[in-house]
Amino acid sequence: MRRLGAQARGLGAALVAAMGFLAPGAWADEPRAQCTATLSGRRVVVRPEAQAFVTQELDRLLRLGLAGRLEVELTLLRRRKLWFDEQVDSARLTQVLSFSKGEYLLDGRALPSGTPVLALERTAWTLKEPPESNESFVVQLNVRLQVVTAASLSKVASWLTQGESAEDERSTVTRNLLRTVAEDLTRDASGRCDVSLVQ
Length: 199
What we know:
- Strands 1, 2, 3, 4, 5, 6, 7, 8, 9 and 10 form a ten-stranded mixed sheet that branches.
- This protein is an alpha+beta fold.
- Helix content is 25%, strand content 40%.
């Protein structure tokens, strides 16, 4: 019982510490994902962007030295009338968002200061065949930013309880609770953009 009480107190302290980053109004600006896409010959080039992803709370975590995992998923679709769009190609990439020496870095590349827009890595596809004159394409974009993970929160809980409970002794409820808090510190958004033809 003593061990369970210590675990509960440690978990409570960890959750209070994590939730301290979640102030009222934290989600005032909803994150947005958008892109521009062009088609030249058989080559499709997509330039995705993420807006309003870094809240004050996530900014504080990044400035404390944590890194954000930015996961980007792009899907190229061929439009079909009176039917579902056909998937032509897709790409997934992960970028690291960090803060160092007074500036934000995306995969080590410095971002313009004061900008709420994250210019993500450009993606390109080559179509197997030249498109027909009446064909049109669209890109589906999904972006997810996570700064705090369930694993990192679990380490904080272990540190606060001074190692009284090992990872394998932690209950399923505890793991699910930590995962829930981590999800609350996650931002995601989806968007679509038409592929425009470049002459």
